[in-house]
């Protein structure tokens, strides 16, 4: 839900906020009947016509829009690509994209959806997320990746589903991401968690509860009421009244918590708060003291402490992509929570590890992995599959890292040519 312009201007420049405000619509508050797809085995989503798509696109798991969806999401409406997440019941959670959306944006949207639905062993509500994913298919969840910006795309606005627009989809390593450009702020985590919440977790106070996790939603609602009453989160009266009328308060609140938890507002300079200044906690570090109930929603409940997907670093990136927080690099507010990355393209570039036991894959250029200590404190072993295990012998520092298609390790005192091993 996009906040009112008066509220937005109070917290940031109008140009940034008009482009980047939330865009969840009331269409996602009440899930609709799913689009019927004939085949369900394997989540195939029906036969596809892949004419016009490159081999590189197809290799990413992106196809033409299946025939069963192509009437609604047609070429005439500029929809030309499709991908999916297959739930345990064998049915697909659909993702359709218009023609200006990039392949990397499509892949990242799918990655974030899969991240939310990846089991979190030992957590209270997320140890087995099968029921959440299955509910999403039963309730007709569909993610619509649209051209342009929120408020500009009338075609997407008229369709049922969770909208997400080109101008608010950052990609790791891309210019918007590296600069943490809030005129093109990263709304992917927010909008996709709206879809998971509405169609999978479930929302109370409606005609009936159609989700899979009523107890977790009860905790979310209690935290939202506490945050609203305590003025820890919220906007002007007209916006809050609008959210209340469409029963979206708990969804918008949870999205604000998730955004801060994953560092999306850490580089925002216009306020010391998160979500355009509307949420008291700006970063994960703020959550326990500033919104304890919000922090409890994140603490071993459903959401992983790190990002579980393998991030494709945009082919335009040059230099060392850091997975370690660095005050001089705004994007590391977010990248510090990445675990696994793949460099794409052919630029010579490297990756700085962060202690999450990283899995790092190089591109066709010359690549390096940058470590924290001297070479004497690491053990490097070539594996049978051609990758390298690089283990830090110092506890609680760089951990155990798998490195493949990388030519060089960079220590504080020397470099190791992996091609010589």
The spatial strand order of the largest sheet comes to: 5-7-9-13-12-11
State the end-to-end distance.
54 Å
Shape: globular
Strand content: 15-25%
The ordered string of helix (H) and strand (E) elements is HHHEEHHEHEHHHHHHHEEHEEEEEEEEE
> What percentage of residues falls in helices of 4 or more residues?
25-40%
**Topology, number of strands:** 15
Written account of the structure:
The chain is of the alpha/beta class and 421 residues long. Helix content is 28%, strand content 17%. It is built from 14 helices and 15 strands. The protein has helices at residues 5-11, 14-20, 55-59, 103-117, 130-138, 154-157, 175-179, 188-201, 214-229, 237-245, 249-261, 287-290, 292-298, 332-335, and strands at 79-86, 92-98, 142-146, 162-165, 307-313, 319-322, 338-343, 349-352, 359-361, 367-370, 378-382, 388-392, 400-404, 408-410, 415-417. A six-stranded mixed sheet has the order 5-7-9-13-12-11. Helix 4 (103-117) crosses helix 8 and helix 9 (214-229) packs across helix 11 (249-261). The longest helix has 16 residues, at 214-229. The chain is globular and about 65 Å long. The N and C termini lie far apart (54 Å). The model is unreliable at 4-22, 24-30 and 32-49 (pLDDT under 50).
């Amino acid at each position: 839900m996009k906040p009112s312009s008066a509220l937005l201007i109070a917290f940031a420049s109008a140009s940034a906020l008009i482009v980047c405000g939330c865009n969840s619509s009331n269409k996602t508050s009440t899930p609709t009947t799913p689009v019927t797809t004939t085949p369900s085995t394997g989540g195939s989503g029906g036969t596809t016509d892949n004419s016009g798509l490159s081999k590189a696109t197809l290799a990413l798991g992106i196809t033409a829009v299946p025939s069963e969806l192509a009437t609604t999401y047609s070429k005439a409406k500029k929809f030309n690509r499709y991908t999916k997440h297959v739930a345990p019941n064998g049915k697909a959670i659909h993702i359709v994209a218009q023609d200006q959306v990039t392949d990397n944006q499509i892949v990242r949207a799918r990655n974030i959806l899969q991240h939310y639905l990846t089991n979190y062993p030992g957590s209270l509500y997320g140890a087995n997320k099968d029921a959440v994913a299955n509910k999403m298919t039963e309730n007709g969840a569909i993610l619509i990746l649209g051209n342009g910006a929120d408020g500009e795309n009338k075609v997407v606005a008229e369709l049922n589903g969770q909208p997400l627009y080109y101008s608010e989809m950052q990609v790791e390593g891309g210019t918007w991401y590296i600069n943490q450009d809030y005129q093109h702020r990263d709304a992917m985590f927010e909008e996709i968690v709206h879809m998971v919440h509405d169609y999978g977790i479930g929302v109370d106070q409606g005609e009936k509860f159609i989700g899979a996790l009523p107890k977790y939603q009860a905790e979310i609602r209690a935290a939202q009421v506490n945050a609203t009453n305590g003025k820890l989160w919220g906007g002007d009266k007209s916006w809050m009244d609008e959210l209340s009328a469409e029963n979206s308060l708990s969804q918008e609140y949870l999205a604000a918590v998730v955004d801060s938890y994953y560092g999306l507002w850490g580089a925002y300079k216009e306020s010391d708060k998160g979500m355009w200044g509307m949420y008291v906690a700006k970063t994960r570090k703020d959550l326990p003291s500033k919104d304890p109930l919000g922090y409890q929603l994140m603490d071993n409940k459903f959401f992983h402490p790190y990002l579980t997907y393998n991030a494709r670093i945009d082919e335009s990136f040059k230099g060392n992509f850091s997975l370690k927080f660095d005050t001089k690099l705004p994007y590391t507010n977010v990248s510090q929570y990445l675990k696994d990355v793949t460099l794409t393209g052919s630029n010579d570039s490297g990756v700085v590890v962060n202690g999450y036991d990283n899995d790092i894959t190089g591109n066709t250029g010359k690549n390096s992995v940058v470590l924290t200590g001297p070479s004497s404190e690491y053990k490097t072993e070539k594996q049978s599959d051609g990758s390298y295990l690089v283990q830090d012998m110092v506890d609680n520092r760089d951990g155990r890292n798998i490195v493949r298609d990388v030519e060089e390790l960079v220590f504080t005192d020397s470099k190791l040519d992996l091609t010589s091993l």
